[in-house]
Design a protein that fits this description.
about 280 residues; alpha+beta; Fructose-1,6-Bisphosphatase, Chain A, domain 1; 2 domains; 5-stranded antiparallel beta sheet; two-stranded antiparallel ribbon; 11 helices; about 60% helix
């Protein structure tokens, strides 16, 4: 009967190193996409990085093309599940579906990795070129840690920009509503009339058709006007991050009397939502 040492000795050290690299990359590559506030990167970027790692490892291993796709898929499942368990999503509904998302991502990694794996299994890299392949593998595997490292300043810049633009839009919409009401009260609910008096960051033509009485999304913020065209100076403009902390940390509201950096609250005296003083 073989001893554990003799069994372990039959496993080439280089394969263990490749397995560790592929597993670590498959775990970490998904985190910048999931940690909130998250980087705005498409899902196919971590998928491509994991698949490329698996393919390069297959080349360096001498053709073990089934092993690395399986490791990459299992590590993807573990990585996504662990990330969502340790750092749950703010959206409880989205959090409840992350188990399904983790399984789907693992299947996608497995299927996508089998294609380059089967194509590269017969490739034999000359010794003088193996260093270049190793360097490529390490660079691809490092994408996840690098994305995590640059995430804080990139996210901070995006949030500051989103909040600034949302504040400017709400302020400019308040001025536009006030101007329309002072000239033609009957046009206060007309998006085209508001557009003529608006001087803030741009909205799309479609936004102007829906902004009065609905919410539209621009630069990560959902912005809308609640307005009663039958009552003078009876309106409420609000803006909130569409994806919670991934888009901003401030909620902004404005009415005929004030512009505040907080969410609308129920005003008992007026019997509706208003920009009451923000909670300390």
């Amino acid at each position: 009967m073989d001893s554990p040492l003799s069994i372990g000795a039959t496993v080439p050290r280089i394969n263990l190193c490749l397995l560790a690299i592929v597993a670590a990359a498959s775990i970490v590559c998904w985190w910048p996409l999931l940690l909130e506030p998250a980087l705005d990167i498409p899902w196919w970027i971590p998928l491509a990085a994991v698949v490329l790692c698996s393919g390069l490892a297959t080349v360096l291993s001498g053709g073990k093309w089934l092993l690395f796709p399986l490791i990459a898929a299992a590590a993807t499942l573990v990585g996504i599940a662990a990330c969502c368990r340790i750092w749950p999503l703010e959206d409880g509904i989205a959090q409840s579906y992350m188990g399904i998302a983790a399984v789907a991502a693992a299947i996608a990694v497995l299927v996508a990795s089998l294609i380059p794996g089967s194509m590269t299994r017969k490739i034999r890299v000359p010794n003088e070129k193996r260093r270049a392949v190793w360097l490529a593998l390490i660079c691809v595997a490092a994408l996840g840690p690098i994305a995590l490292a640059v995430r804080p300043p990139i996210v901070a810049h995006r949030l500051a920009r989103n909040e600034r633009l949302a504040s400017e839009r709400v302020s400019a919409l308040k001025d536009a509503v006030d101007r329309v009401e002072s000239d033609h009260r009957s046009q206060a609910c007309d998006g085209n009339a508001l557009k003529q008096h608006y001087s803030g960051p741009a909205f799309t033509e479609k936004d102007w058709r829906f902004v009065a009485g609905n919410f539209v999304t621009e630069d990560g913020y959902a912005i809308g006007i609640t307005i009663d065209c039958s009552q003078p100076r009876d309106y409420l403009i609000s803006a909130m991050p569409k994806r919670g902390s991934s888009d901003g940390s401030r909620r902004i509201c404005a009415d005929a009397f004030s512009l505040r950096n907080c969410a609308p609250q129920w005003d008992m005296q007026r019997g509706r939502n208003s920009c009451v003083p923000c909670a300390p």
